[in-house]
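Q: Given only this backbone (81 positions), what sequence would you predict?
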């Protein structure tokens, strides 16, 4: 995701990283290029992504990535987002 946010910034756009506190406490994220919003839990992360996101990209990672992707697709199918 760092490469994606860097490419976005280099091309004059803005990226928002929505990061659960557990990730920052365990140092699981790299350098963020753009604004970083820290949230308490993963569910809050998905809600913030829905609130602020214009587009979504899913890169290979783990099961939580699939959960977020299916949540976004479900909301789009129901015309919620």
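A: Predicted residues:
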């Amino acid at each position: 995701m760092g490469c994606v946010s860097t490419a976005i910034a280099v091309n004059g756009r803005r990226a928002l990283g929505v990061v659960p506190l557990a990730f920052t406490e365990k140092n699981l994220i790299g350098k963020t290029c753009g604004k970083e919003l820290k949230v308490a839990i993963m569910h809050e992360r998905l809600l913030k992504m829905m609130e602020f996101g214009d587009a979504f990209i899913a890169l290979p990672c783990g099961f939580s990535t699939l959960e977020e992707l299916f949540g976004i697709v479900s909301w789009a199918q129901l015309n919620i987002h």
